[in-house]
Design brief:
Layout (H helix, E strand, L loop, with lengths): L2 E6 L3 H16 L6 E7 L23 H7 L2 E11 L4 E6 L4 E5 L2 E4 L3 E3 L7 H4 L6 H13 L11 E5 L3 H18 L6 E6 L13 H11 L1 E5 L3 E5 L2 E4 L4 E3 L2 E4 L3 E3 L16 E2 L12 E3 L4 E2 L13 H20 L12 E5 L5 E5 L4 E4 L1 H15 L7 H7 L2 H6 L1
Parallel strand pairs: 1-2, 1-6, 2-3, 6-17, 8-9, 8-14, 9-10, 16-18
Antiparallel strand pairs: 3-4, 4-5, 7-15, 11-12, 12-13, 19-20, 20-21
Helix pairs in contact: 1-7, 5-6
Length: 402
């Protein structure tokens, strides 16, 4: 009887989980005994870390040839319900049909979504760069502004959220606006952060560099305040300050995909499922969690994986391998990712590259930018549709010690 592995999501974690599972099955010589299915709306890897940029042609590479090369079936649809007790998931197909898929092992890799709190006017008037369609909509909006009468509101952009995505978005915005309105246009770009400092989660070490870059890019910073209300003509901050603008970009936080809530057991404040060292959901038999839906320890020092492609790629490889290994009799591997780096794009200023959880600055400006360019255009992209090469990259023993 054929055993079945179902992977929900084809993002960084889902894609690598499927490849790693196929590798384990191949190593055991049981390709005819285990079927691997990945469920997502389309066989694409959306490059979310790059959606603050302006060129979208390469932001959703087709992974269908890769999946075919490694022996993974793609099902076009979305997992809507998880029935852990009966070992089944419900899938809504892209054509509207509903399917029930049985599984022996299930890997939840559906990622995260932008958190939208109950701020008046947020859903009606704000833009974001969370998904490819959203980034394209923002770009179309900005370009359409050029045909409108020049006003301060037209030429002003407010980015709500001064975390990683907010900083990358806002430092890119001045040159983006000048490309649309002209190099001599009088523009205003503001970033708003509720915490007392910009980039609160990035820590104190890189902050002076980030502040220098923001100032050099011409970005105004508002801290200890947030967006209290948004309308078509502007945003009102919690301090009472009113900024007239036709463009508010929301980047304030993410939450695990709602499917994670269907898995029994503990969840953290972001909705992530507590995972054991092998990325099994602690309270759900035969379910693995990975990527942004997993709360997993990266080391023995108390650090946990962040919601980033850096961690999702390794989490996916380990979860996929372990899901298959349990079925085909191979050893499982614990998840471990003690090396941690960050590379933050800071627009025309350059970029900052740090190492360690205390984020010691190693590279800045053009040197940091060169590394960021490598990451964004090469390192995070899917491998070629070459079975052996993909399997080599999916080896969990290799990625754990990297």
């Amino acid at each position: 009887m054929t055993q079945k592995i179902v992977v929900a999501g084809s993002g960084f974690a889902g894609m690598w989980a499927a490849i790693a599972a196929a590798r384990a099955v191949s190593l055991a010589g049981k390709q005819n005994e285990v079927e691997i299915t990945i469920v997502s709306p389309a066989p694409q890897l959306h490059i979310r870390p790059r959606l603050y940029e302006t060129v979208f042609e390469e932001m959703a590479p087709d992974i269908a040839p890769l999946l075919e090369a490694v022996g993974v079936r793609h099902l076009a649809g979305t997992v809507e319900a998880i029935h852990a007790r009966s070992h089944e998931v419900e899938v809504l197909g892209t054509g509207g049909e509903r399917t029930t898929l049985p599984y022996d092992r299930f890997v939840l890799a559906t990622g995260s979504r932008l958190f939208l709190p109950n701020v008046p006017g947020l859903k009606e008037h704000a833009f974001n760069v969370d998904q490819l369609s959203s980034a394209i909509a923002l770009d179309a909006h900005l370009k359409a502004l050029a045909s409108k009468p020049e006003t301060a509101a037209r030429n002003t952009v407010v980015v709500a959220g001064g975390g990683f995505t907010g900083i990358e978005t806002v430092t890119e915005m001045p040159q983006r606006l000048r490309a649309i309105f002209g190099q001599d246009a009088k523009i205003r770009v503001v970033v708003v952060e509720q915490a007392p400092v910009i980039g609160p989660d990035l820590g104190p070490v890189p902050r002076p560099v980030i502040e220098e870059a923001l100032a050099e890019c011409g970005v105004e910073v508002r801290t200890s305040t947030g967006a209290a209300a948004i309308d078509a003509a502007g945003v009102t901050l919690s301090t009472g300050e009113r900024i007239e603008t036709q463009t508010v970009v929301w980047t304030a936080g993410a939450r695990a995909n709602p499917l994670a809530a269907q898995i029994e057991g503990e969840h953290d404040r972001f909705g992530r499922v507590h995972a054991d060292p092998y990325l099994r959901a602690k309270s759900a038999k035969d379910i693995f969690v990975t990527g942004d839906v997993a709360l997993a320890a990266t080391d023995g020092e108390g650090n946990v994986a962040s919601m980033s492609c850096q961690h999702a790629m390794v989490l996916g490889r380990v979860a996929g391998h372990n899901a298959a290994a349990e079925l085909v009799g191979l050893p499982v591997h614990p998840y471990s990712q003690p090396k941690y780096v960050t590379c933050l794009d800071l627009g025309p200023w350059g970029a900052i590259f740090t190492e360690g959880w205390d984020r010691q600055v190693r590279l800045t400006r053009h040197q940091g930018k060169a590394v960021k360019r490598e990451i964004n255009t090469k390192w995070i992209y899917p491998p070629q549709a070459d079975r052996d090469a993909a399997f080599a990259l999916a080896n969990p023993a290799h990625v754990i010690v990297a």
